[in-house]
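Fold it.
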Amino acid sequence: MISVNGINKSYGSNKILNDISFQIEDNDYAVIIGASGSGKSTLLNVISGLERADSGNIVYDNSEISLLSDDKLTIFRKENIGYIFQQYYLLQNMTVDKNVKMGADLSDNKDYKKIIKAVGLEDKLNKYPSELSGGEQQRVSVARALAKKPKYLFLDEPTGALDEATGRQVLNYIFELQKEHKFTMIMVTHNNNIAKTAKTVIKMNSGKITEIYTNEIQKNAYEIGW
């Protein structure tokens, strides 16, 4: 379980997160939804340990990551967490194969090429990021995160650079893998349709949670509008 308790975060005089509290059960798939500027991406970064809150605490099972030193927090992220961001953060001097293998090596995953095939990049193994389209680069970042076999996967608008067909394909694969391997998944989106695929939906506005609800029926990537 991830327990988020009384989180506050400001940048200068601009308060981004205001007394945020909620819990995410193990193996859950949760969506944080809100308009641009609502604080959802900052919240994702704080929950995942990329940024520190000004106050409040975040507890993973029995580990309060808010109390960890920078070095121990880095180790925690390395061992437990995967990320898929709007930006690709690929290493430009590495091929598709080597970028994804970098994630796979963190969990000694020898079968990572299956993931490259699943996201439709089997014929791009030896290409460099500069030789790929934006959508293809995003698929590499997705494959790299999944190849790590994370216990917790964080996604920030993962289909923002993808066309509809590819976006549905990639989301569908992520959903199938999440069900198979039972990792906990938290996705940020402004798309109300994607929120219909989640079990837990957390709605944000102006740095506050306005509603938390459960979808009794979770739609798949091919059942939602785009």
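Helices lie at 40-47, 70-80, 96-105, 113-118, 134-147, 164-181, 192-195.
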